[in-house]
Every structure is written in structure tokens, then in C-alpha cells.
Design a protein that fits this description.
Strand content: 5-15%
Strand order of the largest sheet: 1-2-3
Number of strands: 3
Largest sheet: 3 strands, antiparallel
Shape: elongated
Family: Belongs to the SEC2 family.
Radius of gyration: 42 Å
Helix content: 40-55%
InterPro entries: RAB3IL/RAB3IP/Sec2
Protein name: Rab-3A-interacting protein
Keywords: Coiled coil
């Protein structure tokens, strides 16, 4: 009898230890789940099993989204069509500038002193041809006005050339107008002069923008532009002014 009682007591103590061990494991799991929920704001607290057993909601494996929170987030997203209005490019004739242009067109002249050209010189031409080498920039403007400026690719075959100083004329890797180290794909010269000046793609674009403007107003001056609509011709001139404005601000197109 005593031996049987001892065996039962030993078995009971063993079962008690196993039960206490299981309780410790379950408590550790519950604590781990609490920590996981608190560290993850997107996980809903309502789906956790209650430690006291009061909640009937089963625990679901994997990520579950709170519908009310998700709806609130989706509702606050802006409508792209409402925040990004459609923009179109528009234009409007400046009445004073158009009046000056029409007066110039009736009696076209290439003199800087006329009202229309004086404004173009001040706002576009002078800034576009202002370089670090001021004297060379002034010489370019004079040559453009006289239509004696030549611009050609560096690889263009010509007669033997007697250069001025290397510092003054630049070289294939140095722009004569800016003085900066740039790859120069073109060079310029004045009239029948034998001196060539290497220019960078950016400086070349500024020069050609001014040349294009002078070419068109020279055509108007010579009566070669036959359009009767003054406004149409006006906008052609404004487009050429726009190219000069972009060039002086640093925008240019390079020939590849």
C-alpha cells in the first residue's frame, strides 16, 4: 500500500511539473505576441486572443488589415486630376512692341537707333553676345551686322592659315570667347582675315541665334518676305528673339 501510494504521488508530481512547464511556455508565447503587436502599428489589437479567455475572436496567422484604417487612408489620397491642372502654351501680342514692329516694317532699316531694333539690341542681342573676351564679342557683333562673319566646322579644309597668338584664338580644346577648356567643334573668322577663333558649342549657338535673327530682318529689309499678315511676320521675329533669349540663359542645341 505504501509503495503504491508513493508511485501515485511521484506520477502526480511529474504531471504537475509538466503542466507548470506548459503554462510557462504559453505565457511566454502570449508575451511575445503582445510585443509583436505593440511594435507593429498596422496590426489590429482586436484580433488577438484574450489572455483571460473573454474574447471569442480567433487568432489569425499572417497579416490582416484594419478595414476602417485602410478606408481612412484611401479616402485621403488626392485625386491626380484635381491637383495637376491641364496647362497649354499660350501667347499674346504685346501691343506696344507690335506697334513698334509695324512702324519698322513700313520703313524697314537696319540702324540700331530705330525704336524696334533698339529694344531688341538692349534685351537680346547685347546680352547674347556678351562674353568674357569683350573685344572679341564686339568684333563678332560688328561682323554679324556687316554680314562678314564665317562659322565653319573645325575639320573644314581651307588654305593655310596664319594664326594670331594661341591665347587669343583658343584651340580645339579651349574656347576663345569664354577662355574655358571646352571641346570646340567650330571656329569663326572675320571677312577675309586669316585668323580663326575656336568656339565651344554653347558660344557658337549664341552667335548663330543672333545671326539667324539678322538674316530674317535683312530679308524683310530687302523685301524678300512676302507675307501680308503683319502679325504672322511678327511672331516669326518673336520666335527668333526667343532663341536668343534661351541662348543667353544657357540653353543650346549641340550638333552630334
Amino acid at each position: 500500500m505504501v509503495r503504491e501510494a508513493n508511485v501515485k504521488q511521484a506520477n502526480a508530481e511529474k504531471q504537475l511539473k509538466e503542466a507548470l512547464g506548459k503554462i510557462d511556455v504559453l505565457q511566454a508565447e502570449v508575451q511575445a505576441l503582445k510585443t509583436l503587436v505593440l511594435s507593429s502599428p498596422t496590426s489590429p489589437l482586436g484580433e488577438l486572443p484574450s489572455v483571460g479567455g473573454g474574447s471569442k475572436t480567433p487568432f489569425r496567422k499572417g497579416h490582416s488589415r484594419n478595414k476602417s484604417t485602410s478606408s481612412a487612408i484611401m479616402g485621403t489620397q488626392p485625386d491626380p486630376s484635381a491637383t495637376q491642372p491641364i496647362v497649354r502654351e499660350c501667347r499674346e501680342v504685346d501691343s506696344q512692341l507690335f506697334s513698334d514692329f509695324k512702324a519698322w516694317r513700313e520703313e524697314p532699316t537696319l540702324e540700331r537707333s530705330c525704336c524696334f531694333l533698339e529694344r531688341v539690341y538692349r534685351e537680346d542681342i547685347y546680352p547674347c553676345l556678351t562674353f568674357s573676351k569683350c573685344e572679341l564679342g564686339s568684333a563678332i557683333l560688328e561682323a554679324v551686322e556687316q554680314n562678314t562673319l564665317s562659322v565653319e566646322p573645325v575639320g573644314f579644309q581651307t588654305l593655310p592659315v596664319v594664326k594670331a597668338s594661341a591665347v587669343e584664338c583658343g584651340g580645339p580644346k579651349k574656347c576663345a570667347l569664354s577662355g574655358q577648356t571646352k571641346t570646340c567643334k567650330h571656329r569663326i573668322k572675320f571677312g577675309d582675315s586669316s585668323n580663326y577663333y575656336y568656339v565651344s558649342p554653347y558660344c557658337r549657338y549664341r552667335i548663330t541665334a543672333v545671326c539667324n535673327f539678322f538674316t530674317y530682318i535683312r530679308y524683310i529689309h530687302q523685301g524678300l518676305v512676302k507675307q501680308q499678315d503683319a502679325e504672322q511676320i511678327f511672331w516669326e521675329v518673336m520666335q527668333l528673339r526667343r532663341e536668343m533669349s534661351l541662348a543667353k540663359l544657357g540653353y543650346y542645341k549641340d550638333q552630334l
